[in-house]
What does this fold into?
Amino acid sequence: MIRKIPKPVLEVLKKIQENNFEAYIVGGCVRDLLLDKMPKDWDITTNAEPSEIIEIFPDSFYENDFGTVGVKVEKFIQNGNGLLKEEREHDVVEVTTYRIESIYSDRRRPDEVKFAKTLQEDLSRRDFTMNAIALQLTTDNSQRTTENVGFEIVDLYGGQEDIKNKIIRTVGDANERFGEDALRIMRAIRFHSQLNFEIEDRTFEAIKKNAALINHIALERIKDELTRIILSDNPAEGIDMMHKTGLLVYIIPEIEKGVGVAQNRHHIHTVYKHLILALKYCPSKKLEVRLAALFHDVAKPQTKQGEGLYAKFYNHDHMGARIVKKALTRLRFSNEVIEKVTMLVDNHMFYYNPDEVGEASVRRLIKKVGLENMKDLMDLRIADRLGSGTPKAKPYKLRHLEYVIEKVSKDAVSVKMLQINGNDLMKDLNIAPGPKIGAILDVLLAEVIENAEKNKKEYLLQRAKELSVEDLSKLREMAKEKIEEKKEEEDKEIKEKHWVK
It folds into this structure.
């Protein structure tokens, strides 16, 4: 275990002790060491106050009210696993003075932070037993080297036993811990999904009792915890635990609405269970694709028509896109994430049958979602299938679609990919600069998408010459008609032949 501690971290500990202060590695990094994992961050707690820490480490920084000093250290390599944080010029070890905290009036932060005298006082304020373990170097300073160092574990609340038994348990009274900082409720569920630990019964009951307190927490902090759940090894377990504890209705009520909503002959599961299983079996590790798997059928409760085997859910994809956009905006996700998830949900019903859909349809799909997003859309479809109880993730249809995507990937799906451009129209056809050039190119693109063989300069110039006699409004109407005509055909195929849910 001790070999996993980077040399700069050991040197910080040593230097604090050499100045006659106590110093312990503490918190999540000790937990990870006990689990034989490499910690992502390193935290040290000490009885030295911030001013004294800064005196020991002059190049450190202190920019908070919680007694935490950032000590700059050289970038270090984690046992051949690369640099801890590659984007930084240096690494940071956080050194925090022992502290006790007063009442949390807003359920988010202590009204006052007071420095404590002992390690026991500091550990008593921590959230879970597995995070309330400290590690101290014990080798005599005169003999200590980074290769030969002893250590002692300080575990006052049974954290090692809980780690061994894979149990999440609060330090002390669970209601008090969650009352102090309601974000701990989500942290418990996040650890459940990340570590595959079970939540101890009294802690579980306290989460249920205090779930509404999450409304006091800033949405940015909730989003950060939710992101960690979604990106964990067991994201579906995390979301389902939010449901079981009553937390989901406060965080993502849109998903909670699917509980108990039956589907039709295409599904053996309720809407909620289908969404959870789609997330569970999502083959992608990308945040956007996993969120899309969780939300892809979110609008089914609102769009359901009829009951039983032949219930319908028309336009649930488009309505779902609007719902997910609103939900992720509320949860403070970035515009980039929101746009990507919305696009995937909006297009997850794409229809493809090798006997009925040609290359032109695939080019239109690529134009609509972008070639760079096709793999993500395919992963969403696989998640949808597996979440429906379908044993085969990628049937012949999807394998054939992948083949066609690769085949047409070089075909023109944007004006920039045409063999002519606006300069050619102005130079060869003497067309004056203006919006008419763009309109002509849009019509040409619509025709090339239908037939890739037409993307030849000679043909396009001749066709552009024919189109140049039309006025601007007519050209725009022609381009729109071609797009709308094909969209209506494909929408009809979706509704009548495939994935009519």
